[in-house]
Amino acid sequence: MSENNGTKNGFKTFLIRKNIIFSARRYFVDAMGAMASGLFASLLVGTIISTLGQQLGISLLTDIGNFSKGVAGPAMAVSIAYALQAPPLVLFSMLAVGNAANTLGGAGGPLAVFFIAIIASELGKMVSKETRIDILVTPIVTICSGALLSVWLAPGIGLAASSIGKLIMWATELHPFLMGMIVSVVVGMVLTLPISSAAICAALGLTGLAGGAAVAGCCAQMIGFAVMSYRENKVGGLISQGLGTSMLQMGNIVKNPKIWIPPTLASLITGPIATCVFGLTMNGEAIASGMGTCGLVGQIGVYTGWLNDIASGAKSTITAFDWAGLILVCFILPAILSWAFALILRKTGHIGEDDLKLDNI
Known about the structure:
The protein is an all-alpha fold. The chain is about 75% helix and about 0% strand.
């Protein structure tokens, strides 16, 4: 019995020494958040640049954008390893792991990268600097474990993620009012939580009407908090939340959860308006579905989807109705609805004077 305890304690000590911490926060908050940054710095930025190139007729920009989009898998894997505080040789080796997992994962590549990169990073950390030939051992263990896991698991993970995403999209098309509300509220709330809505939307391949509802929900949170907290945070808060992230309000939500009611109610309304009234679809990159107004990536994604539909013949032209729907759902309605709901809560004493105040703004 004492020998078993000694073995367990020894292994725990080893894990602590290697900075390996099995926790939901490290994997589903830190790693997933970093993964979203990796996606943004490759796939999303590449999409923006290539779209500009297409619209301006500048082939060089299109090529640059395509180069950026082509390294999405490696960028995600390195970002995850960075969040897990992997040593340099492990970090650099994750380029190959990310490429394998994303390629073999197909439509669900980001989800495959997420799980496989975590495992390969932790295995690499275990052997890092444990031998005199670390320059060989650490990259070999990291790359081989990640590549083998990609061969064994990535296709199945990709298929499962794709199936779930397709199920959500099918349900949204079948019941656009109900599912428009559900997708809008859930994805919008995830965006405000310390979880990556962008990574989740990318992993599930969430596009179409469901992607449009997701965009609506994210915009309701970001524009909603930006406008309803203007009296406390002025222009700095308007920009940092409206074009940055509503996650900045997470600390205030913990103190007073009622401040979350106005933007959430707004998303409950704008979601079905997006799906049932304007038929707002996201047929660009799936990650843009979970970005809202962050850098206007959500709106650029919708616009890119329109261009894709025109190119495929599914859409003849971009109409004034399309633009009106995008502007109303993403900006005007979230601002008006959240402000109105917040005003009611302020007058009834449920939201106090400084409940929405951001530090350092």
